[in-house]
Amino acid sequence: MGSDVNTVEEPRTIESSKSWVVAFASMAILAVSYGSPLLSVIAMQPIAAAFDNHRSIPALASSLVWLGSGAGGILMGPAAQRLGVRWIVLFGGIMIGTGFVLSTQGGEWSLLIGHGLFVGILGTGSIHAPLYIYVSHWFDRHRGTALALIASGQYVGGAIWPILLQYITAQTDWYHTMIFFGVFAIVSIVPLSLVFLRSTAPENVLAPDAAANVSPPMKIDSRTLFSLLCLASVLCCIPMAMPTTHLPALCGDLGISATSGAAMLSLLLGMAFISRQFWGWLSDWIGGLATVAAASACQALAVLGFAVTTSEAGLFFVSAAFGLGFSGIIPAYFLAIRELFPANQASWRIPILFFCSLVGMFIGGWLGGAIFDYTLSYVPAFELGFAFNIANVLLIIFLATRTKGSVRRGKVEANIGFRASV
Questions:
Q1: How big is the CA angle at 21 (ends 67 and 276), to the nearest 5 degrees?
Q2: Of 72, 197, 345, 396, which sits 20 to 30 A from 230 (CA to CA)?
């Protein structure tokens, strides 16, 4: 009897080996889809040459992919819960291919509609937010690590696509590069969706009521908290988009080769892949908001570095530093949503916050090109981005103080709720 009294029952978990299979398959899908906004970045100068050398046009096309991805996610997140994530993601892969083919038909509007509507809203919008929501329901103990892993698909693709797309563009032209990428998106995303994505995640089956009703007490009402989180995501993503959109063009202006510019972008995104695993591990220990604040502070320093660095070696170093910092931000926001709000609200809160972050990416990508067109320099853009970044850090610190202690209580209550449900 003594052993019965002293024995502490281990909390049950929804995680299994299949959870990680789903996470790695989702990462592979995201590695493909995240190449979509990079194409007009890598080919910015030749695309601009087709439009009277206005860089704001290819920069706008790239930004529309980000913006469309967020807007589409608001529609497709709930749709994936009703129809099944497999079919929504499969549809998104087909739309990416369709959008890039349309973008090659000639004219500014075909480029922008192809990128904004088909590649963005219907394509990546059907993939990014639905997969983040879906995978978050496969994990309870290592949710931060899992979200960081699948989000790393952006950097797996980012380490590969810039060099490959730059090579294809140099050997052919940007039209053929877009067609190649569109076809590849279809033949890779469709089979991955069919094989690895099933309709219902285990959290929705095993603990629908208990998980849905967890809402930890806080010193700020949920509406205000969520609104300020959305604002914070805009503030940090404006500077986040500037180097990732304009780094190759910045190198060209400084007399650095296009190959080196693509290599810097690959280094930036490759370092982000490595560091994102660290940020994911850290977020499981300190929580989502604290991770956002730390990663955003690192990003701010690197953005300032882009404003003051002109040498090739220096830009390689700053690119690596930027990758180490900014990679931890977005998955930590999603983790914060799962920590601070009921689980049954994830299907609409995550897409809305993701949309706001991509509004920031849209503004930052376009703003960098617009400021360059006006000043013929990227320095003012990076300086403005630094100011936005500092505002984000201060806002996140404020929110962290208003929710202190809520994250740990929410995790404990979620475990109790899960055990009660099974």
A1: 50
A2: 197
| pTM > 0.85: yes or no | no
Q: Three-state SS string across the chain, please?
A: CHHHHHCCCCCCCCCCHHHHHHHHHHHHHHHHHCCHHHHHHHCHHHHHHCCCCCCHHHHHHHHHHHHHHHHHHHHHHHHHHHHCHHHHHHHHHHHHHHHHHHHCCCCHHHHHHHHHHHHHHHHHHHCHHHHHHHHHCCCCCCHHHHHHHHHCHHHHHHHHHHHHHHHHHHHCCHHHHHHHHHHHHHHHHHHHHHHHCCCCCHHHHHCHHHHHCCCCCCCCCHHHHHHHHHHHHHHHHHHHHHHHHHHHHHHHHCCCCHHHHHHHHHHHHHHHHHHHHHHHHHHHHHCHHHHHHHHHHHHHHHHHHHHHCCCHHHHHHHHHHHHHHHCCHHHHHHHHHHHHCCHHHHHHHHHHHHHHHHHHHHHHHHHHHHHHHHHCCCHHHHHHHHHHHHHHHHHHHHHHHHCCCHHHHHHHHHHHHHHHHC
